[in-house]
Amino acid sequence: xxxxxFLESLPGxxxxxxxxxxxxxxxxxxxxxxxxxxxxxVEDTLVELDFFQESFPSEKKSGEFLLEFDNExxxxxxxxxxxxxxxxxxxxxFTSFEVQGALANIAVMxxxxxxxxxxxxxxxxxxxxxxxxxxxETMENVLCALGLAFGILGIIAGTxxxxxxxxxxxxxxxI
Length: 175
Hints:
The chain has helices at residues 24-28, 91-94, 99-119, 138-172, and strands at 46-54, 61-69, 72-78, 83-86. It is elongated and about 110 Å long. By secondary structure, it is an alpha+beta fold. The protein contains four helices and four strands, in the order αββββααα. It has three domains: 1-39, no CATH class; 46-119, Class II Histocompatibility Antigen, M Beta Chain, Chain B, domain 1; 143-175. The longest helix is centred in the C-terminal third of the chain and has 35 residues, at 138-172. One of its GO terms (cellular component) is MHC class II protein complex. It holds the Pfam family MHC_II_alpha. One of its GO terms (biological process) is immune response.
């Protein structure tokens, strides 16, 4: 038998060998890094997207069911109009779609959202955060004031020394 290959350590426990009964690989299939598994070529993709949302504070509700094939929309079901909206009308000649199934999915999502909102500590009041207190900048202000003071003193001292040097040159006769 090959030596055990250890998977990631689980929270609260040690590593689990992948070839031991009861390990993740024995109950859930072979768990290997994605780089070792062959990836099948994907030719076509069919995507079904369902969503339901409620806007606050307007409480406007909307839901939609979207069906697309290879990143091209085939149809969507509008929750408010309760009807199919085909992207191209010619699609209706080749296939059909029961709008009630999509509306049932949207109704389940609406119910789930309402249950989650009731169970969460959600209030209808707008959350207004407190204004953040300003960060004290006393050290920066002191350093800035010292730098400014030294700069002004340097300008004054430089000007005085410049004129003294000019006066000394005039007394000696230098131009």
